[in-house]
Amino acid sequence: MQNFNFRFLAAALLTLGVAILGACGGGPVPNGVDPNETAATVNGQAIKMEDVDRAMKQQTQGQESRLSPLELAGARLQVLQSLIEQEVMYQKAQKDNAVPSEDEITAEVNKRKVDSHLSAEEFNKQMNQAGFDEKSFRENIKKGLAIQKLVDKITGKIEAPKDQEIQDFYNGNKDAFVKKRGVKLAAIVIDPSNSGNGDTTTDEQSAMLKYNDVIKKLQQGMDFAQLARDNSEDQSKFQGGDLGYIAEDDMKQNFPAQLAQGLMTAEIGKILTSPIQGKLYILKLQDRSDKDEALTLDGPGVRQQVIDALANNRKQLLTASYQAIAMNEAKIENFLAKQVVDNPNELSGARPAPSANSNTAANAAPANTPVANTSANTAVHSNTANVKPENKPAATAPAPVNANKAK
Q1: CA-closest candidate to residue 145, choices 193, 185, 221, 90
Q2: Terminal CA-to-CA distance of the chain, rounded, Å?
Q3: What's the predicted TM-score (pTM) here?
Q4: If both were cysteines, with which of 86, 192, 278, 307 could 376 make a disulfide (CB 3.0 to 4.6 Å apart)?
Q5: What CATH number should be reported for the domain whose range is 181-291?
Q6: What tens digit of pLDDT does each residue of 140-188 get?
Q7: What φ, ψ does residue 244 adopt, rounded to 5°?
Q8: Backbone phi, then psi, for 83, in 5-degree steps?
């Protein structure tokens, strides 16, 4: 049921790109504002180019040098739009006394550090690579918490959906409530490249040594989940390697054909290995469904998923409407957009020639780390992880109801 996408507002706001050329045209530069250092102002509050570049570095994971000037300008405008929206909402939060206390900010900072499962040294390293120091990191979290408080207050008036609405939604979208034929997997992922994620393997030789060591320990009967936590170079290690449920169609798209076929016939508990998009995957088959299974409204977790989906849809619409009004009321001057309008023919579409080490990921904070996720690139903070196929096999479920989780 791909027509229903009720993910919270943050994801939708991120897609608003060049629309800012019309919505936020540049104006006269206020006294004391350097247009070369200031990307935009919101009610006189400056958004610095360094803020845009920091967010750009996180969005591109340090690969911005590989973009053409034309692509770079477009990406900067998109990032700046998100920062403008965030600043508008933060100023609304300030007026509504929704700014968190210093203790609340400290608690959230500590939570991010604990959740990262990194040493203090490694966390600070990734924070610095993402363009933050301790002060700017706290300020970023402060704005995110303030906006979330504001959104919670705005959406607090929304009532829970009635039983009839829940039943009607289920009856009208039964195709969404199907647990597809597929498998539940756990994985230990070994990445030969230096992804900047604290990997212990940085080339083919070290990767094979680690791979052989893990296989040997599995043969000796060591616990798969513990080995994943200790050795996997993928975000799934924090869940003991759990990749969740993956439909057969998604396996065929993301896995080698022989592996996908093998997983659909192997015994539960079997260990299979395969290279996938340049990485070494050690997979454990945890469970399998050999046919599509229709889920009932009274099945485990189904009713609650419908309730959450309907409530989140109302929250999304209400928050988007609130922000639209706030954006209309704000005085926004977009100097970056004005530069594009004034100099439309100065942006080349040619990308730089690839360097010798262009296949190695730059030293930027990975997009899935708590450090990178603190970036205020959206007006509303979202905890949805940006999992890419090369990092984790995609598990498809109909939005808004993930039928594959209802068991």
Answers
A1: 90
A2: 19
A3: 0.65
A4: 86
A5: 3.10.50.40
A6: 999 999 999 999 999 998 999 999 999 999 999 888 888 888 999 999 9
A7: 80, -165
A8: -70, -35
